[in-house]
Amino acid sequence: MKSVLVDFLVGGGIKPTLIVRYNHLGNNDGMNLSAPQTFRSKEISKSNMVDDIVSSNAILYGPGEHPDHVVVIKDKFHSFHSVATILTYLTKAPLVPPGTPVVNALAKQRAMLENIMRACVGLAPKNNMILEYK
């Protein structure tokens, strides 16, 4: 939800200068993220979304300009909806070949899915296809 909100704000011409993410994790995610290297992996995936948004908005963000971004993750058990948990895992941790660029911004992900559907019915892609990795 936070990723969508930032993408929406930037798409609407509002320039966030600071993004703080505060996540409560359940289902033993906190135990899994207690090791520094696994926490860093989660932090990188969250930061990549911000990088995608900044790189696609040269009007708001000049060269070398980037919003401050902090990720805080706390371990506290919460029962989650099983389908939502699976969908979150599948969409936030895609399995791709090494070297494949991973797109974390929701608007770009949606555009890529739309273009794949367009290709299935014989229409030309619009943008953000990255078809060579699909």
Automatic annotation (TrEMBL):
EC number: 5.5.1.4
One Pfam match: NAD_binding_5
Entry's transmembrane regions: none
Gene Ontology molecular function terms on file: inositol-3-phosphate synthase activity
Domain (Myo-inositol-1-phosphate synthase GAPDH-like): residue spans on this chain: 1-73
Domain of life: Eukaryota
Keyword terms, alphabetized: Inositol biosynthesis, Isomerase, Lipid biosynthesis, Lipid metabolism, Phospholipid biosynthesis, Phospholipid metabolism
Pathway assigned in UniProt: Polyol metabolism; myo-inositol biosynthesis; myo-inositol from D-glucose 6-phosphate: step 1/2
Catalyzed reaction equations: D-glucose 6-phosphate = 1D-myo-inositol 3-phosphate
Keyword Isomerase: yes
Signal peptide segment: none
Uppermost EC category: isomerase
Cofactor(s) this protein requires: NAD(+)
InterPro entries per the UniProt record, alphabetical: Myo-inos-1-P_Synthase, Myo-inos-1-P_Synthase_GAPDH, NAD(P)-bd_dom_sf
GO process annotations (BP): inositol biosynthetic process; phospholipid biosynthetic process
Similarity comment: Belongs to the myo-inositol 1-phosphate synthase family.
Protein name: inositol-3-phosphate synthase
The organism's taxonomic lineage, starting at the top: Eukaryota, Viridiplantae, Streptophyta, Embryophyta, Tracheophyta
